[in-house]
Design goal:
The protein has a single domain, classed as Glutaredoxin (3-Layer(aba) Sandwich), CATH 3.40.30. Helix content is 52%, strand content 14%. A four-stranded mixed sheet has the order 2-1-5-6. The protein has a two-stranded antiparallel ribbon with strand order 3-4. β5 and β6 form a beta hairpin. The protein is globular, with a radius of gyration of 17 Å. The mean pLDDT is 95.
């Protein structure tokens, strides 16, 4: 008998550990199929809500934010790249990249959920940022991604040009912050079990099996 799990992934499109965590989670779900299946919803989180539209140079940002040296930032980047490859995700060359404001991307993700295309859009936005050194706050780049997925570009443009879904996204962000989510990814299963961070595949597998047994 198949156990259906509800999974909410609180994450940001500029968070490398979020795509690493998703890849591992997806591998775990593949290994557990068909006994365990999941309905995944992406929930909004901004790593840098105060970031201006033009963004900030990535190494400068990371050294300032975490109080580490450029060398440590470079080592962290190399470790992330290696971890990504271990779960089948290749990060592009992030040297000289920038960190951007991602709020508009979250508004589009909220919209895409209505059409069952949220995960596709999320993965395409990860690729835009991490593989193509794209800017997830740039409306033209966002619309190009929307078009590539066969979503309605005119409707997406209308959303970006207005404040549509701003209140909804802010409310969701506040909900998860109030629930204690302060770092991402946060994988919440059946509204009560939290698996935090970019865990290895086997950790997700073990946790999902345990939760499914209790369901």
């Amino acid at each position: 008998m198949t156990t259906q799990l509800k999974i909410d992934i609180v994450s940001d499109v500029s968070c490398p550990w979020c795509i690493i965590g998703y890849q591992a989670l997806n591998q775990a779900l593949t290994n557990l199929a068909p006994d365990i299946q999941a309905d995944i919803t992406w929930q909004p989180f901004e790593l840098n809500p105060q970031m201006p539209k033009e963004g900030q140079e990535i190494t400068e940002h990371i050294t300032q934010k975490y109080g580490i040296s450029e060398q440590q930032a470079e080592q962290n980047r190399a470790a992330i790249k290696e971890r990504g490859l271990s779960v089948g995700y290749e990060f592009g060359n992030r040297g000289g990249g920038r960190i951007y404001n991602t709020f508009d991307a979250h508004r589009l993700l909220h919209w895409a959920h209505e059409f069952g295309k949220q995960t596709e859009l999320k993965l395409a936005l990860f690729d835009l940022y991490f593989q193509q050194s794209g800017n997830p706050s740039d409306h033209q780049q966002l619309l190009a991604v929307v078009e590539s997925l066969g979503l309605d570009v005119a409707q997406a443009k209308q959303i970006l040009d207005s404040d549509k879904y701003t209140a909804e996204v802010r409310k969701l962000q506040q909900h998860y912050q109030a629930a204690g989510v302060s770092s991402v990814p946060a994988v919440i299963v059946n509204d009560k079990h939290l698996i935090s961070g970019g865990q290895p595949t086997e950790v997700f597998e073990q946790a999902l099996k345990q939760i499914a047994d209790e369901a």
